Amino acid sequence: GNPEGDATLECTLTGPQVVAEHSCLVAITGADLDPRVNGQAAPMWTGIFLGQGDRLTFGGRRAGGRAYIAIAGGIEADRWLGSASTNLMAARGGLHGRNLKAGDQISTAREATRPAVSGHHLIERLRPQYFDHTLHAIAGPHVKRLDAQGRGLLFGATFKVSREADRMGYRLDGPRLATSGEELLSFGLTAGAVQVPHGGQPILLMADHQTAGGYPVVATVVSASMPIAAQLVPGDELDFKEVTLERCCLLYTSDAADRRG
Prior knowledge:
The protein is mostly beta strands and 261 residues long.
């Protein structure tokens, strides 16, 4: 396969129509957006051979929110701060720092280092299930700013991703969480942090989150649950399940072992 840091195409809610100008091997992972090759259903998590002129399309969302298209040999992309990801706010990375548009041509970064073999796939038990929206989380550094009722709501109530959701973070609809204490000085943040701003609507920080902030962080979603969080879209419901640090480490090592195969 490709090196871990290679770029892929991210498709949110709906997929593009892509025509292969040269034969290539692709694989589609993440959300099930009903991929099709020349109108015929195509398998996910599997190497798919596209001949010259073949057309890859998507029928519509069936599970998850974001699909990824990988191409053997990687995708030629601008790199910024060591990443080929597109940062729209900074207009850096990816293809000229912007979303793809009709007519764009995508080139492979290099020849595939190993022969491309169609049909290789990720075994079923390792494929993530996007129907379960339970996110494991550890208590955050400011969880004591919640009273007993607030902590019970945080780890017992159901929240819904609001329309204010993007790659920076999701504002969550649901019970309002009241925090106490003086205002905080700004401190470093991480993906998965659950902030509680004034008004009590929690915010789950995602991949493009700001580097620092001053709202209380009452929980942090563990890294093993972040791929599930990344598949949520406005209207999806979720709940936080509190786990210990020891359980968090176990989930991480188990997830890492699965990824190594």
